[in-house]
Q: What sequence folds into this?
C-alpha cells in the first residue's frame, strides 16, 4: 500500500502519508485524538473529480452502485471529506480499523504486507497551526522527530504490517513544513527505529 500527499495539499487518510501527530495524540489501540482534512476519491470529491451521479455512468455501470453518491465505507458519512477536527479523527480511525482488518486477514493467509511513503514527510496546515498554538515550531527538527515518532507509533499499534518502504520524493513535494526535498532532521531515522524495531517479531 502506497500513501502519498496530493498535489492540492489535502492528504489521504493513510497511516503516514504525512506527519500525523505527536505520540501523545495516539492511544494504546492506535486511534488518534486529532485529525485534519483528508480523504480519498469519492463521487462527491477528489482530485480533478466533478460530482457525478453513478446512475449516469455509461453502459449500465451504475448498476454496480447502491446509490448515486458513492465512496468507501469509512467515508460514507463524509463523502465531501470531513473538515472539523473531530470528524476527521473519526474518519482516520475508521480507515485504520479497515486497514487493520485487511492486514490481519493477510497475516492469517501467510501474506507479507507493507505500506510506504515518500520522504521527507510534510506537516499538514491544521497540524502546523495546532503545534504553533502550543508554542512549537513545525520546522524545528526536534518537533519533526516527535511527529515521525507519533506517526510510526500509530502504525505499530494499529496495523500488523511486516515492512515499511521509504521512497525518494516526487519533485512537486516541498511546500509543507518538514518537507523540504533532500533535507531530513538529524537523528530522524534513529527516532523512527526506536519506535519501529522493538515491535517487530524476533526483536
A:
Amino acid at each position: 500500500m502506497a500513501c502519498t500527499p496530493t498535489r492540492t495539499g489535502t492528504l489521504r487518510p493513510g497511516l503516514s502519508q504525512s506527519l500525523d501527530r505527536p505520540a501523545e495524540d495516539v492511544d494504546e489501540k492506535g486511534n488518534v485524538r486529532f485529525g485534519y482534512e483528508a480523504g480519498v476519491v469519492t463521487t462527491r470529491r477528489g482530485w480533478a473529480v466533478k460530482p457525478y451521479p453513478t446512475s449516469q455512468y455509461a453502459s449500465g455501470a451504475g448498476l454496480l452502485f447502491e446509490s448515486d453518491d458513492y465512496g468507501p465505507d469509512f467515508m460514507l458519512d463524509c463523502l465531501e471529506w470531513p473538515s472539523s477536527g473531530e470528524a476527521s479523527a473519526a474518519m482516520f480511525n475508521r480507515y485504520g480499523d479497515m486497514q487493520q482488518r485487511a492486514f490481519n486477514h493477510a497475516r492469517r493467509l501467510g501474506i507479507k504486507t507493507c505500506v510506504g511513503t515518500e520522504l521527507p514527510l510534510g506537516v499538514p496546515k491544521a497540524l502546523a497551526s495546532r503545534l504553533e498554538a502550543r508554542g512549537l515550531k513545525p520546522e524545528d527538527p526536534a518537533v519533526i522527530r516527535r511527529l515521525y515518532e507519533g506517526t510510526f507509533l500509530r502504525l505499530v499499534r494499529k496495523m500488523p504490517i511486516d515492512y515499511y518502504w521509504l521512497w525518494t520524493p516526487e519533485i512537486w513535494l516541498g511546500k509543507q513544513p518538514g518537507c523540504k526535498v533532500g533535507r531530513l532532521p538529524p537523528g530522524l531515522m534513529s527516532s523512527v527505529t526506536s519506535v519501529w524495531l522493538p515491535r517487530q517479531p524476533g526483536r
User: Anything to note?
Assistant: The two ends are 24 Å apart (CA to CA). Residues 2-31+110-196 form one domain. The chain is about 30% helix and 5% strand. Strands lie at 2-3, 114-118, 163-167.
